[in-house]
Amino acid sequence: MKSISIIVLFSIVFSIEKQADIGFLYGVLSRLNSNTEPHVLEDSAIINTGDEIKINAGYKKETHFYVIFKDSKGEFTLFYSVNDQNNEDLSAQPDTIYAPVLPWSKFSDPPGDETFFLINSTLALNNLENLFKRYNRVKEKGRKKLAKQIQNEIDSLDPEKKQDLASISSRLDKPVVGGVTFRGEDEDNLTDISLTNSCTGISGLAFKKILLNHK
Questions:
Q1: Looking at residue 138, what DSSP letter applies?
Q2: Count of alpha carbons within 13 Å of 203, Cβ hemisphere only?
Q3: How many structural domains are present in the chain?
Q4: 59, burial (CB in 10 Å: exposed 0-12, middle 13-18, buried 19+)
Q5: Parent domain of 86
Q6: Is residue 164 part of a domain?
Q7: What residues does 201 pair with on adjacent strands?
Q8: For residue 20, is it within any domain?
Q9: Cα 28 from Cα 65, distance rounded (Å)
Q10: Is there a domain that residue 206 lies in?
Q11: Nearest to 128 by CA among 153, 147, 145
Q12: Does residue 175 fall inside a structural domain?
């Protein structure tokens, strides 16, 4: 079967909920220690030390996309933002970007909750970006204080933390049937460039939190 155009897929994403005004496609994939074939990782999945993870995303140009990681020690990493110059756009569409926003990365000890935040916004999240710039410069004591500020900033974007549910993305997270592939790959077979889910939001913000249980 031929791959589906990413433009067509975005029309499918926005048809999920008529109120949606922003959305993205994503795939959170894993390679288990004993198996090199990719598997889809869903929220609350169990992973083990030595397992690998890769995240792909497709989002509209002129929007801002972020991948933030909070590890089992409570430390933050901004893995991807639209300001990154070294991330390759693998799509050939004029108004969309498809990128491996996190290359294959291996989980290491200690075990605990490993949390990823995928955020797509029509506006740049300047406060969050500035917090990460400071976070990456300071020593451990200062990092703990800034980590709390980063978490508060993320919570202010999380629709589950908002009483008015200004964004509806968590409710609208949907699987993409068969996954989405590019460059002639068979869409019925999962590959390490597949997109498997969609997320939409309103008020210019789509937000997805993925919590993994690291054993």
A1: S
A2: 10
A3: 1
A4: buried
A5: 6-214
A6: yes
A7: 22
A8: yes
A9: 15
A10: yes
A11: 153
A12: yes
